[in-house]
Amino acid sequence: MNMNADKTKYTTLNRVTYKNLRTKKLGSLISDCEDIKYRISQANSAFKKMTRLWLQHLHITPTKIRLYNACIKPIATYNMSTSGLSERALNSLNFMHRRHLRYLSGYHYPKLISNANLYRLCKTDMLFLDIYTARWKLFGHIL
Asked: Is 0.70 surpassed by the pTM of this model?
């Protein structure tokens, strides 16, 4: 098997460089904290690209939720089941998810809705539950 040496990238890890590492491996950054920020920015970017679609109806529709689940959630949760995430990182993912759901359902500042009612209205769960489910599936696959 031939390997293209020009495209090969070697990375040396130690405790000092690991925290500030911006190297990508298989589409994910090696540093978990940086990867979370990158995933959130990518999901926000994809969400903004679909703004015209989201604004067609002022109320939430099953099609909006299906498109969100098919196009935006995979970007935010890609490869998250393989990394050990802190509670703060999971909360930032859930915050992004709720912000998107509030935008889809038309709830903005003057109108308030609790998180439980928002999830019930959108017929979805918290994002970290999807990550935990993917972890258990990966664990079962490995076993």
From this structure: yes
